[in-house]
Amino acid sequence: MPTDHHALLQRPAGELAALVSAGEISATELATAVLERIAAVDPRINAFTDVDEQGALQAAAAIHAGDDRPLAGVPIAVKNNRAVLGLPVRSGGRITDKLVAPYDHHTTARLRRAGAVIVGTTALPEWGLLPTTEPLHREPTRNPWDLERTAGGSSGGAAAAVAAGVLPLAHGNDGGGSIRIPAACTGLVGLKPQRGRVSQGPETGENYLVVDGALTRTVADTALALDVLAGPELGDATWAPPHTETYRDALTRDLRPLRIGVLADPGLQGVEVSAASLTALGEVLELLQTLGHEVVEPQLAFPVDGRAFSDLMVDLFTDMASTQPRILGAAGKAMAGGQGPMEEADLDPLAWAVAQRAAARNATDAWQTKFMADGLARIVVGAFSPYDVVLTPALVTPPVTIGTITAGLDDPLEVFRRAEEFMAFSPVANITGLPAISMPTHVIDGLPIGVQAVGRACEEHVLLQLAAQLERELHWEDRRSPIASEIPR
Q: Could you confirm whether 481 is annotated as catalytic?
């Protein structure tokens, strides 16, 4: 790949779309550059599950100068738990290799309509269960900042691709931190939108925990992606009220002084926040005060029993994730020529344990869990309500080494306990439905460290404005991982 094309791929998606529209570069040139970049670096980071070279070049050839769509000609990837017509929908599973999507998921279709060129799909842990991307049947996805460390999960492949300089933007989704965790691990911006902001159609009407979004290097690209993805589809049971302007327009307005709460302790006994995470949080708070914001003291205490909150999250995630092996897994097994019900050999140990746990629960259990979660969510939202935003560490620790969370455990479900020691600050936004953003504020000892901001209901624009203000001060868009910084030969 020519050096100038490598540098071009480091530019934001919005800028690339403008270059294509102006005729300064063609969509085919961009797609070719990305495909060459994937071939060069993906064997080391394992970000992609499938690369659609033919489909990408065909799509790019149909985009010409003068196309003013927001993502015209921009190469992107879709997380492999959303259908992309003609590609396998693996969802991280080992038996879904032949489960080929006969349609585009709603998010895929919206990205295509915005002019994006889909070059492939990205890796996730089996059924998206963990905050790392290490399914046992394939090589783990590795962090472009340090190949011995995780890129996070479950949108780990998306994060690795962007952080490695392969793509300016990649689709992801967040059911317990699955956008924000990998963003913090790899030095990216990761926004979990408000519950109901992005349609889950056509498969479901709503999802209590999960919402789709993107991983990017800049706040402007995150706003652009939200403008493309936000909004209901015909048949949705519920949806978030529409914002009064585009999120990109919101970035052009000055941010008012904010009242900021601080949550530095996740309220889980035995979970100790790392010095690096606390250092990043403290320095961001000092900076925000110099910018005119009010940081309220004393710090917040988590307003409910941390263990009860964590246990509810496991139950909610079990009930949600159980549908994937039942539906996708059975279909995948049938398409692969298998017969009969799902068996232990069909899944990784954790996915099998979750499936067995889900099978032992009944509708009353699931309803009671949802009822309890709603009650605890109201308490948390009430405790957060005096503040415009609540700042927390994005992660409890810096990105962990490969195998730290998954290795050496006789009880697969105990993996969830180990996971919370890494990402205990993430699930609060999923259970409450509130928007939250992970911001790549620091690099400490060569590793990205993020700070999370949780916003008020439906106020993604405030989070984006805050992140943009910090981006102007900290210039994180100029940082590059070691792999992204390599000059192609």
A: no
Find how far residue 64's CA is from the centre of its chain: 30
21 catalytic? Reply is: no
Q: Are strands 436-444 and 447-455 parallel, antiparallel or unpaired?
A: antiparallel
Distance between CA 38 and CA 53 in Å, rounded?
10
CATH superfamily for domain 3-485: Amidase signature (AS) domain (3.90.1300.10)
Indicate if the pLDDT at residue 367 is higher than 70: yes
104-113, 315-324, 388-397, range with the lowest pLDDT: 315-324
CB-CB contact of 144 with 163 (8 Å)? yes
pLDDT digits (tens, 9 = 90+) for 403-461: 999 866 778 888 988 999 999 999 999 999 999 999 999 999 999 999 999 999 999 99
Structure tokens, 399 = 């990105």
Strand-by-strand arrangement of the 436-444 sheet: 48-51, 117-122, 75-79, 169-174, 211-216, 189-192, 436-444, 447-455, 389-393, 259-262, 294-295
Catalytic residue among 79, 199, 322, 438: 79
Domain boundaries, the chain: 3-485
The distance between the two most distant Cα atoms of the chain, rounded to a whole number of Å, is: 64
pTM summary value:
0.96
Minimum mean pLDDT range among 14-23, 111-120, 317-326:
317-326
Per annotation, catalytic residue among 21, 91, 154, 426? 154
Q: Is 154 a catalytic site residue?
A: yes
Instruction: Find the catalytic residue in 91, 155, 178, 277.
Output: 178
Q: How far apart are CA 332 and CA 336, in angstroms?
A: 6
Classified as helix, coil or strand, 163 is: helix
